[in-house]
Structures are given as structure tokens and as C-alpha cells.
Give the backbone structure.
Amino acid sequence: MIWLNKGNIPYVPIIGLLMLIVSTICFVFPQIFDADFDSIGLDEKVDSRIRYSALALSIGMLLLFYRKFTLQNDGLIFVKCLLVIDLGYFSTRALSMLIHGFSSSVQRTWLIFELMIAICLVIIIKLKKASPR
């Protein structure tokens, strides 16, 4: 995040907000990219919503709140970025499963896996903040 200088780039939060809007549109209307969305199975519906919106959501959140990241430790910033990306996938999967039902064991497994990754990343962030280096 060093390349995102706080003073020189005032349009970065605006681009982040636009990415969040695009992510929301792609999540709500997956038929834009997948014409036969209504005829596919549950797993594919959840995957389609995630495929088209999760990464845009994560990048939008990173760009919208990039000023919150401190430049004191690049390793910590990298782990925080990984956490935001993981939470983007987790939240879109959870919302997709709320819409289509929690009957898919594959999607529940991925949801638990993404939650475990988020917990590990939070622990790493806490340990890095506590270390004196």
C-alpha cells in the first residue's frame, strides 16, 4: 500500500465506492453474466454470485478504507489486505447461502474454511501488533 500516497490520490475512495456499487449489482443481478442462471443448480448459483461480486467487493473495501491502513509495517498491511479479501468471499458466500439456502454441504464447508482463514489472519495480526519489532 506504499504506492497509495494519502495526499496525492483523492479519487481512490471514489473508485472504491464505485467498485462496491458494481459488486452489489453483480451480486443482485448475476443474470447479467450468466444467462441460464435460473436453470442451474444450487452450488452453481452460489458460485456465480461469488465469482462476479466477491473480488470487486474486497477491492472496493480496500480502496474505500485505504487511509485506515498505517504504513508502519508492510507485512501487517499485507495480512490485513488478505483478511479483507477473505472476508469479502466469506460475506458474499454467506449472503448467497441465505438467499439460496444452506442445504449445500460443499458451500458450508467452504464457508467454514473461509471463517478459519479469517480467524488465523486475525491471530496473525494480533501477534504482529504485539511483537516489539
